[in-house]
Amino acid sequence: xxxxxxxxxxxxxxxxxxxxxxxxxxxxxxxxxxxxxxxxxxxxxxxxxxxxxxxxxxxxxxxxxxxxxxxxxxxxxxxxxxxxxxxxxxxxxxxxxxxxxxxxxxxxxxxxxxxxxxxxxxxxxxxxxxxxxxxxxxxxxxxxxxxxxxxxxxxxxxxxxxxxxxxxxxxxxxxxxxxxxxxxxxxxxxxxxxxxxxxxxxxxxxxxxxxxxxxxxxxxxxxxxxxxxxxxxxxxxxxxxxxxxxxxxxxxxxxxxxxxxxxxxxxxxxxxxxxxxxxx
Length: 280
What we know:
The chain has nine helices and no strands. The protein is an all-alpha fold and 280 residues long. It has two domains: 1-42, no CATH class; 45-278, Orthogonal Bundle (Arp2/3 complex 21 kDa subunit ARPC3), CATH 1.10.1760.
């Protein structure tokens, strides 16, 4: 029996938008090529395995560890920029409570998921709030602890919806254009809604620990998301008096925050596939 050849494979291969009458092309190399085993280099179920989200080979592991260092440096610079933004002190609620405005570091962490995966991005999410605490010691350790948990959770929320539920590949673009647009943008509302559900209570917890427990720290109420303009003992009471209104305001700000994170990620992630493909 005559063994199958690559030409035979070309004739039997059927993928959306692969027109058999035209030269074979893929979305990276402008030619229809094969992997080391002689198989077509297209989206496969292996792209969605949990192990693939961590590493695919020794070469890929070195690549991801190296990029983790790069993103750690970028996120550290971003959190320093966020510290400057915090110092502007102009988005106050009544009672001297500042609504969340810091988002550049979590934006960098979100983008990093596209190349280093959720495990290494979680390391960034757990580390950056503590690095921010070192840069700005006015932040309390309890608020840094709460934020590190929140950042880590948001990394996995984005990964689960984008790569697991909607099956976007780290290395391959969906060949069907309409399906590709659907898979990229449909996770957005789920990610933003879950971000609000996670971060509204976390933000309220930060308000509590920095108003009630914060009095023990010489009135240093500056923390990751919320800090206070005036030094009295009524911040938590002020918040409680309008808890429903303030919760909706915080939720709206978080919705904007995570929408920015997701849109930026979704626009950049398809370009990241190209470098992931090279170092898979």
